[in-house]
Amino acid sequence: MRRVAVIGVGQSKFGELWDASFRDIVLSAGIEAIEDAGLEGREIEALYVGNMSGGRFLSQEHIAALIADYAGLAELHIPCTRVEGADASGGLALRQAYLAVASGLHDIVIAAGAEKVTDIVDKAMEILASGVDREWEVFNGATLASLFAMMARLHMDMYGTRAEDLAMVSVKNHRNAVKNPKAQFRREISIDVALNSPYVAEPLRMFDCAPISDGAAAVILASEEVARKYTDTPVFISASSQATDYIALSSRKDFTRMDAVVFAAREAYRKAGIGARDIDVAEVHDSFTIAEIMAYEDLGFAEKGKGAELIREGVTEIDGDLPVNTSGGLKACGHAAGATGIRQAVEITLQLRGDAGERQVDAERGLALNIGGTGATAVVTIFSR
Amino acid sequence: MLPRFWRKIKHRYNLIATKCENCGTYYYPPRNLCPKCRRKSRIVEVKLSGKGEVLSYSVVHEAPENMKDQKPYVVAMIKLDEGPVITSQLVCDCKEVRRGMRVKAAFRRCGEEGDAGIIYYCTKFVPE
Question: Which residue of A has its CA nearest to B85?
């Protein structure tokens, strides 16, 4: 396997992009990535795109061909493939692109992620819930939020995690988003506002839940040799791991842990030859605030049951020892389903290159965790300078 | 959407689980393949007692369109006495629900497809 580097990144604004179509946002992210890399479009050898539900959000399948077409790549006839794993679709596309380059099959590949959700606004919550077991969870009355709420309830009862801890995750991510020009919610919130927001699914409140956003992101991967020709600051992918678990939460042994995350993280650390303590910055999948606390534990940043201590002690704040979700995370940067995994890779790359502007942290190694649904799919990617 | 719900009506209405006679594990939702025994699976259908206890729960305030008329409602993960855990609605006072609470199955209306659409039924739970 060859070393693989990120040589270009791009991202559309995330949010309610009423005046932009699916094609518009994908193109803006793609062009930014290609310009960032200093490439010509015709140098791209393949495209992978993560998209959760073009079929239901837009009644449009065949997303990869559509994107290639509007990116001006149609006449190059390069292979373009859509990858789907609920809201881990972006992470999966990144991994497929990584494998295509690492294997030696291609030298330059673009991995994109895109979702346009506001064309069908009233059904967005239900469509996102298709990432869990429709037939035996959703049909019986469970919502995505309520499944995470049941994890939160147990985590609180068993480990003493408090509603305040969850709110602090949201406050932190909103604060970080203020410094991210691409973020959806660029305003600070107080802990009181978070704690007094209406319940969505008890004990989770509105400010515990990420929005469902429009957005697209793209990264360009290249073999090390090719990367050196294009950039003096390549960011390497030192590991890419993916794991799977039971789709329904009720089938799993422990509802306060995501085994797919534990497994993918363990594999990723082994492949990268490092441990959790070597990570300097991370983007994790805070679709709900409890998921960020659980990610701290499942990724090995904190012992089991002690995730909340990291937020209480400020460890994961932007000026802490291990900043998490410097972009604002899913909560405040926005959660554009299939785009999120790529959007995380963009943020980690910017941080490692020193291009993260006002939210820059000092980091040599970064990690991204992208999960699908309640964690039936997990993708862990480790990046290094 | 309809066929896949009708197809499992027997299991849904009567809490018919499957059991692997090779290892003795009960599965609900029913499985045709035991993840432990795989090709050695010997799957039979078994009716569950419908009794169990609440492992975790949430009171749902933001409900999908077809369940809006029921909100706020309780959704719970219930460990049935035979072993499987089921995610289902618990019909009780939202303030009454507790972890460890004993519950039993009950046949209830579950949701509907719009004003003129079909009404779904399913197994919910009530305090024992």
Answer: A250
Q: Are residues A161 and A299 in the same domain?
A: yes
Same domain (yes/no): A57, A70: yes
Q: Please measure the distance between the N-terminal and C-terminal CA atoms of chain B and give it in whole angstroms.
A: 32
Residues of B in contact with A147 (CB under 8 A): 87
Report domain extents, chain B. 2-127
Going across the sheet that includes B26-27, the strands are B26-27, B16-20, B43-47
A75 and A184 inside one domain: no
Residue A311 has pLDDT above 80, yes or no: yes
Structural domain containing residue A145: 125-209+238-384
Whole-prediction pTM: 0.97
Distance from CA of B37 to the nearest CA of A (A): 16
- Number of CB pairs < 8 Å for A and B? 101
Considering the domain architecture, whether residues A63 and A137 belong to the same structural domain is answered as no
Interface ipTM > 0.90: yes
Domain of residue A202, CATH code: 3.40.47.10
- Give the mean pLDDT of chain A: 97
The reply to whether residue A201 touches residue B60, judged by beta carbons under 8 angstroms, is: yes
Whole-number Å distance between alpha carbons of A165 and A39: 45
Do residues A323 and A344 share a domain? yes
Whether the pLDDT of residue A35 is over 90: the answer is: yes
Which residues in chain A are contacts of B60 at CB distance < 8 A?
A: 141, 143, 145-146, 201
Same domain as A336, residue A280: yes
| Cα–Cα dist A169/A288, whole Å | 9
- Contacts for B96 with CB less than 8 Å, ≥ 6 apart: B127
Indicate whether A107 and A147 sit together in one domain: no
- A60-110: per-residue pLDDT in tens? 999 999 999 999 999 999 999 999 999 999 999 999 999 999 999 999 999
Question: For A175, how many CA atoms within 13 A lie in the half-sphere containing its CB?
Answer: 16
Number of H helices, E strands in chain B: 2, 8
